[in-house]
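Page 42, continued from yesterday. The earlier attempt failed because a stray header line got pasted into the input along with the sequence. Redoing it now with the clean sequence only.
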Amino acid sequence: MTIFDLAGLSLRTVLNQKLRSSLTALGLIIGIAAVVILTSIGQGIHRFVLDEFTQFGTNLLAITPGKTTTFGISGATISTVRPLTIGDAESVGRLPNVIAAMPMVQGNARVETIGRHRRANVFGVSSALPEIWKINVASGRFLPEDDQSASRAFAVLGSKLASELFGRTNPLGERIRIGGDRYRIIGVMESKGQMLGFDLDDTVHIPADKALELFNRQSLMEIDVIYNPDISVDIVEQAIKDLLIRRHGFEDFTIITQNKMLETMDSVLSILTLGIGALGGISLLVGSVGILTIMTIAVSERISEIGLLRALGAERRVVFQLFLAEALALSLAGGLAGIAVGMLTVQLIVEFIPALPVQLAWDYLAAAFVLSLAIGMAAGVMPAIKAARLNPLEALRTE
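This time it went through. C-alpha cells are written below.
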C-alpha cells in the first residue's frame, strides 16, 4: 500500500465518522486557538511595554542616589548616602559625549488658579527636558537656562492640565499657585499621552531647585542623561562613575542604562509570554487525551475490519501506518482549524477592543501547530500498535 493509498483510506475513514472526528478534533482546536490568542496578547503586551520605554530614545541613562548592591533599594536612607545635587547634574552635563543632563524631582501638589484648583503631578526639571524626554512645546517656551540654584518661578503646563485649569483661554502669562508659591506660566507642552498608565499631559514642570523646596527634599530623585549615540554606553557610564566618585568620595549612586533596563524588561516579558503560552498548551494536552481515547475506541470497533485487512495480506506495519495516519489527519485538521479560529479571534480583538495590545506571535503559532501534529502522532501510536498486533483469525471471528 503506497503512501497515497494510506492517506486516501485514512481520510475517507475520518470523513465517514464526521461527528466522532469533529468531537476528537475539537479539543485540539480549542487548545491551538487558546495558544494563539494568549500568546498574541502576551506578545502584544511585550511590544507595547518596550515601545513605551523606547519612545524617549535608547541613548539614555539615569543616575539615582544610593548603591543598590550596598544599600538595598535605589534612594534608600538619604541620611547615610550623600544626596544627588543639582551641582552633580551640572557636572555630568559638562562631560565629553554627554549631550545633556537633567536633574529631576517628582511629586504631587495642589495647583490653583482663579476659581479652579486640582492636584497634579509636579516635575522639577531643567531646560533640557524637551531634548531628553522628546517632548515639544506647543505654545510659549520651556524653562529658560537659569542659574539652577536660583531659578525664577516659571511653570510649564501639560496639555491636559492647561485645558482643565484654563479651558480655551490662553494661559501664557497667567499666575498659578503650586503648594504655597506662585509661578508664572510661560509655556504649554504638546500632548504626549500616557506611558504605562502615567499621564504625561496631566503635569506641571517647574525648576528643580523650586521642586526641592516644595517637597522639602535634600536629594534629587534622579539625573537623566542623554549621550552621543555613536559612543559606547560603557564609556559614558564609566566617565560618569569616575566623576561622581571624585565628587562624593565613594560610589553611593546607581547608574541605570536604557539598554540594561530594556534587556531586563525583555527577559521578564519573554518569560511572561512563555508562561501564557504554556497555559494554552494545557488545552493541547487535553486534546491529546481525546485523540488517544477515540482512537482506542476505534480499534475496538474495527477489529473485524483489521482482521479482513490482515487476511487479504496487509502486513502489520500497514495496519500500524493506517491508524497512525488517521490520528495525524485528525491532529492536522484540528491544528489548522485552531489556527484559523485563533487568528480570527485576534482580529476581532483588534477591531472591538483596540485598547488591548495584541500581536500575532508567529514563532509560538508555528510551535503550537507542530506540537499538535506531535500530539496526534503520540496519541495514535498506542492504538496503532494494538491494532497491528491483533491476530487476524481472532479478529475475523468477531464478524
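Notes: The radius of gyration is 33 Å.
Reminder to self: strip header lines before submitting.
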